[in-house]
Queue: 2 jobs
Job 1
Amino acid sequence: MTAPQFVPLSGYSELSTELMQRRAADFYGDIRRRRTVRHFSDRTVPRDIIEHCIRAAATAPSGANMQPWHFVVVSDPTIKQRIRAGAEAEEREFYERRASQEWLDALAPLGTDAEKPFLETAPYIIVVFAQSYGLLPDGRRVKHYYASESVGIATGILITAVHQAGLASLTHTPSPMGFLNEILDRPSNERPYLVLVVGYPATDAVVPVIAKRPFEEIVTFL
Ligand code: IYR
């Protein structure tokens, strides 16, 4: 067992109430502009922007601080092509056979289909892997706790960081995603959690007309 060590909380600085109110409102005003985009430009994006977004994501809290994630950033056109082929094969199965009518009806307002050209067009595909357990260099397993919750939080921060950097993203979840372990050569303790497509939106990008649920419906103050 390792004994805890503590240092003063030096990164926190208190803000005035007015500044907190303004910042909270401003942040909402900015994040509410985020839209999931399915039409990307092929314009390149400097890699350090993506690196910073991933560094931000990796500050997420995680179960027992195990940080049960790995991010694979794909810009190589050949690998993107293989990911697109793998994803579209699964998606065709999904749309033509696996999905229930209820599921297809729920997706109808989004206008999605099995064609995923953005997987080749966008400059970056970030594949987020969740590690169900860790592996020490000698092969021993380290237990991970709340891996899904932890990776979900990190992914939320990643999406927010990408938006705040001025780029668009798409959360994409071909299912099943096992083909990504093979293409990206990831070990068996990692499962693909989500694919985040990142880049500039196409100049003629459109987004579906959808709405967020009313605040009163999603919150209860007691
Ligand atoms: N994975 C499919 C289907 C899909 C499922 C959900 I739930 C979505 O919110 C969107 C799409 C696809 O990517 O098209």
Job 2
Amino acid sequence: MPTCHSTNDMALEMVRKHDTVEGTVIITNEQTKGRGQRGNQWSSSAGENLTLSLILNPRFLKVPEQFYLNKIISLAVFSSVHDLVPDCDCLIKWPNDILIANKKVAGILIENNVKGSTLESSVVGIGLNVNQLNFGILNATSLASSSGKEFNLEAVFEKLILNIESYYLKLKSGRLDEIKQEYLQSLYGYKVPIRLREEYEFMGEIVDVESSGHLIVSAKRKVHRFDFKEVEFLL
Ligand code: BTN
């Protein structure tokens, strides 16, 4: 599709109309109202990056385990970045930003639809900066900016989808411990002192991420448990 307001909004509308099969991908060259986490905007230059939404039906996932979907999608994007820019300093920033050298290269927005105790459908929105070189903000990067090379968008898309499929099958087959360990090992600040801010700035180390997605940080005086948006990383 050449242009649309937001691939996540389009996918949510299709889900609402029951007009989908699992694995449907909505992809566009340009979004006019791309959405990010916490109600933010997602801006991306037309034709230079990947902006897509994937529809999944993870009915095998119980609601308290829903963060596993964020973990596998983060790992799939992280692995794709690693495959494409092999020597880069790539990490996942909790809950699901992908960084290269502490700058954001990809963002993920997952919107779940719960039925009873399981996930009925999920819209997985991914914005991966590929060939864009100028962002107008300091803390963003792309595969091209960090490697000095230009990428074929179709080849990047193919790699990303194959990685998502492989991690999704891992999740479906219940390999939760393996996924958790892989996610933690790829996480910015895992067992490494980092600067964070709640009300005040403090130093701490991430020691765990619970199935619910809560972040566990060990600091000098106590162990903190944070929900989304309750803590900020000072990169
Ligand atoms: C974030 O804030 O980090 C999440 C960004 C998610 C952006 C993607 S681009 C494709 C999909 N459609 C949207 O409107 N948002 C997501």
